[in-house]
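Convert to structure. Protein one:
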Amino acid sequence: MTKLRERKNNRKAVLRSLYGAVERNRPEVNGAALRAELALPDEDLSAACAYLTDEGLISVDWTSHHTPATVSLTHEGIRLMEELEEEEGEQEDRVKPEEAQPDV
């Protein structure tokens, strides 16, 4: 069984990958391509996608084997990723005082 930290990391990786696809004007990602990119077993990718679907962050078209055929971010998923991107940018903009002072 996958540990909680691994499951969270898998979900974050799915969101990051899908957000990157949206930035490249690819609103949908093939499930097999996503699995290959993230190097996740079917079971772990399916679990991550099911969780994110339940949260309303992604939309999935499932195969008959309950693996993702195509995956895309929902509007809420895009908004979440944009908020995270803005937060990361704000953190990068902040300069620590000791970094601003040259060593003498």
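Protein two, convert as well:
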Amino acid sequence: MDFHEFVRVMRTRWLSIASVLGFGIAAAVAVTLLTPVTYSAKTSLYISVQGSTGTASEVGQGNSAAQQKTRSYANVVRSARVLDPVIDEFDLDVTPASLARRITAGTQQNTVLLTVAVTDTDPAMAAKLANAIGASFTKVVSESLEKPVSGGDSLVRIETTDPATVPGAPSGPRKSVNLALGLAGGAIGGVALALLRNAVDTRIRRTSDIETITTAPVLGEIAFDTKAASEPLIVHSDPRSTRSEAFRGLRTNLLFVDPDAHHGKTLVVTSAMPSEGKTTTTANLALTLAENGARVALVDADLRRPRIADVMGIEGAVGLSDLLIARAEIEDVVQPWGTGALSVIPAGATPPNPSELLGSQAMRALIEELETRFDHVLIDSPPLLPVTDAAILSKLTAGAIVVTAAGKSRRPQLTRALEVLDGLDARILGIVATMVQRKNAGSYGYGYGYGYGETAAPVAPNDDSGAKPGRRAKAATAR
């Protein structure tokens, strides 16, 4: 992961980072509020080892021995032998072990000064305990630990250089330290959570994710727009919008990957899963192709959950399924739309065997007939993973365009869908990414957030020139 990718992850997962950071700050505040206020008092003890002669050599040896003993005495201060007399003196309801946890004893390197600090909720008691512990320590060392076996005075001398005084300010809780730790812990935890979520997130969010799955070109990116449900045919309702330009860019890119002549003119538009925006992609692509004066046929081959009739605002009672079972002629179901360059064939009646119909010889013959009448034939088909209809159609056409929704579709789903097409040796013309989140939604506000099985707002097929809407199928061929 390079720096730019890291920054992108941080910006994408900012909510996770903010949540953990907030938790860290809250934890620091809670610890500070729940920790009782304590005071620390300390005393300093000077330790020396006396010789019998007082020569310079003996003084040096004594000083070295005192330094070594001082390091050991730091543990002796917190021993039960030293603390028991103190507990008895002040009649404390504590054990030596619990009192020892409130004592800090230490020495600086190459010195013979032992510092003993005691914390307590009462500042006066903290000072009394520190002085009492110093006195008890001195007595234990001089009269017991360091007393010669043969008798006599101890060679170790301990003097109090700085007696403990009553502290004027509390030593804890350390508010700034707690807050700093909370901020640091929250920030580190938030970044770790963001990276972990990014690692386990299989959703497709940008074209680079698609490029890791397939070598098929990305033909277009359609950004997410909350208004798309009310304006599914943006190329018709607002032809000068940036959303419309996005579909024109898709049209241009598609023409650059125009299939070989022997493949034909028919393209299947599908997706891995429902609700990825394939129907509105197909409809708007058909409109942009018709803008150039080309004769375009838009066919709804989703015989399970058809939507083209609703999106285009036409009658859908009779259509493709009626053609395939010879209940209607092509002239009866083809409905001109707008100025007439675009013609629409709705799905018609819902059959019990969609896959068999779409893979039949009648479907093959219909595609051949449409290719003689139109310059482009676009087929809106069901998703690849739930049903096999789109895979069957892809074998009868020039190839398939796969639509995938950024932030919703997952890499394993898209991978599996492409494997289905590859397994049938179907040509994958390219990928269209829909619902792509843009940093500046005002500049890239084109796209849509709905798909398979949803109902878009009907759009009247009349254009500004006053062209008549698509004619309705004849009543004689109604289901």
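The first helix runs from residue 3 to 12. Confidence is low (pLDDT under 50) at residues 52-59, 440-479.
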